[in-house]
Write a structure and sequence with these properties.
Layout lengths: L2 H9 L6 H8 L3 H8 L18 E4 L3 H13 L5 E4 L4 E3 L3 H6 L9 E3 L9 E3 L3 E5 L4 E4 L4 E3 L2 E4 L3 E3 L17 E2 L12 H17 L5 E6 L9 H14 L6 E6 L8 H14 L2 E4 L2 E7 L4 E15 L4 E14 L2 E3 L4 E3 L1 H4 L29 E3 L12 H19 L12 E8 L2 E8 L2 E2 L12 H19 L5
Parallel strand pairs: 1-2, 1-9, 2-5, 9-20, 11-18, 12-13, 12-18, 13-14
Antiparallel strand pairs: 3-4, 6-7, 7-8, 10-19, 15-16, 16-17, 21-22, 22-23
Helix pairs in contact: 2-3, 4-10
The structure holds flavin-adenine dinucleotide.
Length: 476
C-alpha cells in the first residue's frame, strides 16, 4: 500500500490499522522503529464513549487536527464544530527544508479538507472573542457559537512589528530573511522560499567577499526553539560545502545555546567545528535600519561589583545598553505571543511570565479555571517548548481527559512535557533533542547529544509522510 492509498482510506473514514501503518513504515526501518516506540500514550479506542455534548475546536493546525481525528473516533455520537480559517495546512517544520533547498514549497502545503469529516461542522472563520463565563465565543465575521466543551488550538501570533523599522514586506529584500514567515489562515509559508533565496544570495556574495551574517533569536517563547540555530548552521554549511565562508554572529536574547547542558555542550562543539561563529548572548533585536544595514540590539548583562563581606560574595550589578551591529545578511526570528483572541480573553494567564498564553494545567491540559476548556499545542501556557512533537503527545491526553469530563469523571491522563527539537547542525546531520519536564527523554537508546545522519534521513524522508498520514489522523 502506498501513501495515497492510505490517505484515501483515511479520507473514506476507514481506520488504518497499526499493521497497515507498519507496512508503510517498512519503507524505512528507522520510521518503523519510531512508530513502534512512539512513546505517545495509546489512541483512544474507536467509539469508546457514548458521552454527548457540543464540542468546539478552535484552530486548523497540527494540534486541532490531531485532537479532532481522535475525538471523532472516540465518540459514538460526536457533535463537533471546528472553527478554522484555513483550507490549506502548512507543515511548518518543512519550512526549514524548503530554506535548505531539500523540499519544494508544495511539499509542505496539504489540503485540510481531508482531515475534517463530513459530520463535523466547519466554520471557516477565526475566533475574535471568547466568553468562557457563558460558554460562548464570537467569530470575526460575527457568528456567535455556544459550546459545552472547548478545545483551544489557535497557536501563536508573530510580532515582527515589535522590531522598530521592520515591516513584514521588508522580509526577502535587502539581505533580510525569516524562515518563520507564514500565513496559516491563508495556508501559505513564504519564509521557506525567501530563506532559500537568502541562502543563494549569501552564497553568491561569499564568492567575492566575506559577508557579515547575523542570525537572531528573541526572548519570547518560540515555535521550535532550535529553529534559529538550524538556519545558522545550515547556511554556514551551505557555504562550507563549496569552500566559501562568511562571518556569522548568533545574537540571542538567551544566555545559552540550549537549555539542556548536554545539548548546549554539543552545540558549542558544532560551532567550534565551523570556526566562524561568534555568539552574542543577552542580545535582543529591537531595531533595524534596512537601508544602512544596521541592526540594534538591547544588551543586558551583569558586571562584578564590590565584595560583600557579610554574604562572602561579590555583588552583581545589572547593566544594559543598546548595541549597533552592521550586517550584510540578517535572519530574523519574530517575537511571538499567543493569538490576540486568547491573550485578550479570560482564558489566558492573567499575570506572570506566561501572561496571555492559555491557562491550562501543565499535566492534564485542562483549563485551570474553566473546567470544560482544554488546550493543545503552541497556545498552551506551559513551561515547555512549542513543537508539533508536543502536540502529538498531547492529543491522546486532551481527548482522553475531555471525554472523562464529558462523562462527569475527573481527568486522570497526564502530559509529561514531551517535546522534540531536531537540530540540523549541518546538511546530513541532526542532533535529535527529545526532552520533557524532567530533562532529556530520548525515544531510542542512543546518545541524544551526538549529531547523526540517521536522524537527518528520518526527518527529511519519513517525518513529513508520518505527520501527514498518521499524526494528523490521530494514528500515532
Ligand atoms: C520554522 C519552523 C520550524 C519548526 N520545526 C519543528 C520541528 O522540527 N519539529 C516540531 O515538532 N515542530 C516544529 N515546529 C513547530 C510546529 O510547527 C508547531 O509547534 C505546531 O504546528 C503547533 O501546532 P498548533 O496546532 O499549536 O499550531 P499551528 O499548527 O500553528 O496552528 C494554529 C492554527 O490556529 C489557527 N488560528 C489562529 N488564530 C485563530 C483564531 N483566532 N481562531 C481560529 N483559528 C485560529 C491558524 O490559522 C492555524 O490553523 C516548527 C515551526 C516552524 C515555524
Amino acid at each position: 500500500m502506498n501513501y495515497d492509498e492510505i490517505f484515501k482510506k483515511v479520507k473514506e473514514n476507514e481506520s488504518l490499522s497499526r499493521r497497515d501503518a507498519l507496512k508503510m513504515m517498512a519503507l524505512s526501518p528507522v520510521a518503523a522503529a519510531a512508530l513502534a516506540s512512539t512513546g505517545a500514550p495509546a489512541t483512544a479506542n474507536a467509539s469508546s464513549s457514548d458521552a454527548t455534548g457540543r464540542v468546539v475546536i478552535v484552530g486548523g493546525g497540527s494540534g486541532a487536527l490531531m485532537a479532532l481525528s481522535r475525538l471523532r473516533r472516540a465518540l459514538s455520537k460526536p457533535d463537533i464544530t471546528i472553527i478554522a480559517p484555513n483550507e490549506k495546512h502548512v507543515y511548518q517544520p518543512g519550512q526549514i527544508f524548503v530554506a535548505a533547498g531539500e523540499y519544494d514549497p508544495e511539499d509542505i502545503i496539504f489540503d485540510n479538507t481531508g482531515y475534517i469529516g463530513d459530520e463535523v461542522k466547519w466554520i471557516k472563520d477565526e475566533v475574535a472573542t471568547f466568553d468562557p463565563d457563558n460558554n460562548k465565543l464570537e467569530t470575526k465575521k460575527g457568528t456567535v457559537v455556544e459550546y459545552d466543551y472547548l478545545i483551544v488550538a489557535a497557536g501563536v501570533q508573530y510580532h515582527y512589528e515589535q522590531i522598530e523599522g521592520l515591516t513584514v514586506d521588508m522580509i526577502g529584500k535587502n539581505g533580510i530573511s525569516s524562515v518563520y514567515l507564514n500565513d496559516l489562515a491563508a495556508g501559505t509559508a513564504e519564509g521557506g522560499t525567501i530563506t532559500r533565496d537568502w541562502f543563494k544570495a549569501l552564497h553568491e556574495a561569499a564568492k567575492t567577499s566575506k559577508p557579515r551574517v547575523i542570525c537572531t533569536q528573541p526572548s519570547t517563547p518560540l515555535k521550535c526553539g532550535g529553529a534559529p540555530q538550524k538556519i545558522l548552521y545550515l547556511s554556514d554549511d551551505f557555504l562550507k560545502r563549496d569552500k566559501l565562508s562568511a562571518e556569522f554572529t548568533f545574537a540571542t536574547a538567551g544566555e545559552k545555546l540550549f537549555g539542556l547542558p548536554e545539548i548546549d555542550a554539543a552545540l558549542h562543539k558544532v560551532q567550534d567545528g565551523y570556526g566562524n561563529i561568534t555568539n552574542k548572548f543577552g542580545h535582543e533585536l529591537i531595531r533595524i535600519d534596512a537601508e544602512k544595514k544596521i541592526a540594534t540590539f538591547h544588551h543586558k548583562y551583569q558586571v562584578q561589583g564590590e565584595f560583600d563581606k557579610d554574604l562572602n560574595e561579590y555583588d552583581m550589578i545589572d547593566k544594559e545598553e543598546d548595541v549597533d551591529m552592521e550586517y550584510d545578511f540578517i535572519h530574523i526570528v519574530p517575537p511571538t505571543a499567543a493569538v490576540d483572541a486568547v491573550a485578550n480573553s479570560l482564558l489566558g494567564w492573567q499575570k506572570g511570565t506566561a501572561k496571555g498564553w492559555l491557562e491550562v494545567d501543565r499535566e492534564t491540559l485542562q483549563h485551570r479555571r474553566y473546567k470544560n476548556v482544554f488546550g493543545i499545542g503552541d497556545v498552551c501556557g506551559i513551561p515547555i517548548g512549542k513543537t508539533g512533537g508536543s502536540a502529538r503527545h498531547q492529543g491522546p491526553i486532551v481527548v482522553g481527559n475531555l471525554i472523562s469530563v464529558m462523562e462527569k469523571k475527573e481527568p486522570t491522563l497526564k502530559f509529561d512535557g514531551y517535546t522534540v527539537c531536531p537540530l540540523k547542525v549541518s546538511y546530513g546531520e541532526i542532533i535529535m533533542a527529545e526532552f520533557n519536564y524532567d530533562g532529556l527523554a530520548p525515544s531510542f537508546p542512543l546518545d541524544p547529544a551526538k549529531p547523526r545522519w540517521i536522524w537527518w534521513a528520518f526527518d527529511l524522508y519519513m517525518l513529513q509522510p508520518m505527520y501527514r498520514y498518521l499524526m494528523l489522523n490521530g494514528l500515532m
